[in-house]
Design goal:
Elements: E1 6-8, E2 12-16, H1 22-31, H2 33-36, H3 42-45, H4 49-64, E3 69-75, E4 78-89, E5 94-101, H5 110-125, E6 130-136, H6 140-148, E7 152-163, E8 166-176, H7 177-183, H8 187-194
Parallel strand pairs: 5-6
Antiparallel strand pairs: 1-2, 2-3, 3-4, 4-5, 6-8, 7-8
Pfam families: Acetyltransf_3
Domain N-acetyltransferase: 23-178
Keywords: Transferase
Amino acid sequence: MGILDHTIGEEIVLKLVQIHHAEEIFQCVVKNRDHLKRYVPFAETTKEVTDTEQFIRHALEQFSLGKEIHIGIWYQLRFAGMVGANQINTALGFAEIGYWLAQDAQGKGVMTRSVLSLMDYLFVERKLNRIEIRCAVSNQASQAIPKRLCFQLEGKLRQMTQTSQGLEDVYVYGLLKKEWEQAKEHDYWQYFRNENANRWKILERDSRRS
């Protein structure tokens, strides 16, 4: 099974998370706890680096089963967040993408490019037909990603997510492979690709390697 090992331009690197990444992931969560805690439940429950190690072990186990993939984002050589796919269902050709980003890395196109990279992996390497992104109705920053990447707003689920403010409604955004194939040729998407096409790569590696 392949992993995503993806260099974007000169500043963004994506890697499958490994146990030896635990300390820098933990420190990023601690630094950004107040920024993350409303929408990212583990920001409050991650108290020790061992909590992060436990998450990574589970993530790698699920990756080995083909059910999930969790990718670390390094921006300007520093760990800055994660993007991943949960509930990968190859029978239905479906996955749900989730993400979080450090506050000081926002507003620079980091997450848009990272999500776009994962979408390419899921549609091309995993041969999925549908990708979904769910965002709390109040989380406009998160909603900007699917809107920017041509996802369709398909509906609203009432009181579907638990945030630090209580239960909140969730918007459901979806994108089909045929829509991705059409959208990826548009000038808007090419902006995210062409400026770093010479560095674009998807490498197949054993999941035990970093």
